[in-house]
Amino acid sequence: MSVQLYTEKKIKNKPPERRHSMSSKNTNPNAGEKLEGTLMFVGDTIAQAATRVHEFHRAISDLPFKAVGAATLNASKPVEAVHNEITDMVYGAVREAGRGVFSGAAWVVRQANQSLASPQVIDQALGGELMDDVSHLPMPVMPNAKTDKRVSAISSAINGVFGDHLAATRNPMQVHMNLYANGQALPADAAELAARFPDAQNHLVIFLHGLCCNEDSWQMYYNPYEPATRPYGDKLQDDFPVTSLYLRYNTGRNIDSNARQFKRVLNKLVRNWPVEVKGITLVGHSMGGLVSRAVVEALTDDDIALKRAIRDVVCLGSPHAGAPLARLAAAGEQLLDRFELSKPIGRVLGVRSRGIRDLKDGLGALQTRAGQDVTFHLVGSTIGDHTSSWLNTTVGDGLVTPDSALADNTGKAQRVTFAQKHHMTLLNDPDVFLELKMVLRQHLRTKVGRD
Question: Are 171 and 40 in contact (CB under 8 A)?
Answer without folding.
Answer: yes
